[in-house]
């Protein structure tokens, strides 16, 4: 590849590498992704049996789910995830990391991070209600693919690698993590091809200015990992490989931008909360009603949709706007206040 002089974008990406180390030093993050594509909805609500749990790496277990009666499960494509409804009432999303060709089971992997993942690690057995599969991270057709996965971010990437392997599409995977012991599915990946494994304790802090140039011209680049991996990646790729496409996903909310403060009146509970300009209506509502339902926090699953009884809504969700309602995870008020049915 022709040498190039690092631009401001490249220097910014290099500076972000320090943030990556701070995030991965604790490795207590879910796959954090950015700019999801519009989700493909399916209306399946399923009660599945947990038929197997297995350790996959330090603090990571996999769960295999199946229909209690042995029926086939809804089909899915690489990049899809499930919503899990836990006995505590918590709802969380986990990427499917099994084989889409297997219609009898689903597999997810969970790193112990907080209360929800701890609940799964410590005792999710028997049956669990799930919704999905849904896909906001679809594998596109391309002449070649470069996959970059950080830690538990390997979960949506693994089925993509398997799909490319079966199709004979050229692919390359750079797999990052704290240490090999913390990185799940190394054995499965190794059986699919030559994976570029770069744990921090062997290779140091990942340098995206060295990783992204590995993509072939016009490749589809998939990135899943802690936020510092994605910082500046789009600008960098646009500069060094303008024909390439970057695909990322996140399971954490995007920062609120361009927001103005407003009051949110909760009609049924009788409370009023002030929504700051830099926070979501969901975050403000949870100060008053911590049990309010939510899931994706990005405006594409519809879990947090509520009726609006008064006021004008600025719809920011990825779902079509429905009159008289709002997604409190992303939508805001254009008026000074809103009244919602909570």
Give an account of the 3D structure:
- This protein is an alpha/beta fold and 342 residues long.
- The chain folds into three domains: 137 residues, 3-Layer(aba) Sandwich (Rossmann fold), CATH 3.40.50.80; 91 residues, Elongation Factor Tu (Ef-tu), domain 3 (Beta Barrel), CATH 2.40.30; 79 residues, Ubiquitin-like (UB roll), CATH 3.10.20.30.
- It has nine helices and 18 strands.
- The strands form four sheets. A six-stranded antiparallel beta sheet has the order 4-3-6-1-2-5, covered by helices on one side. It has a five-stranded parallel beta sheet with strand order 9-8-7-10-11, sandwiched between helices.
- Helix 4 links the parallel strand 8 and strand 9.
- The longest helix is centred in the N-terminal third of the chain and has 19 residues.
- It starts with 7 loop residues before the first helix and ends with a strand.
- The N terminus is likely disordered.
Feature tags:
single chain, 342 residues, alpha/beta, Rossmann fold, Elongation Factor Tu (Ef-tu), domain 3, Ubiquitin-like (UB roll), 3 domains, 6-stranded antiparallel sheet, 5-stranded parallel sheet, 18 strands, 29% strand, globular
What is this structure's SSE topology?
Blueprint: H1 8-26, E1 45-57, E2 60-66, E3 80-85, E4 91-95, E5 105-111, H2 115-123, E6 127-135, E7 145-150, H3 154-167, E8 171-177, H4 186-192, E9 196-199, H5 200-203, H6 208-211, E10 220-224, H7 227-230, H8 233-240, E11 245-248, E12 262-266, E13 272-275, H9 281-288, E14 305-310, E15 313-314, E16 325-327, E17 332-333, E18 337-340
Parallel strand pairs: 7-8, 7-10, 8-9, 10-11, 12-18
Antiparallel strand pairs: 1-2, 1-6, 2-5, 3-4, 3-6, 12-13, 14-16, 14-18, 15-17
Organism: Amycolatopsis albispora
Protein name: Oxidoreductase
GO molecular function, one term: 2 iron, 2 sulfur cluster binding
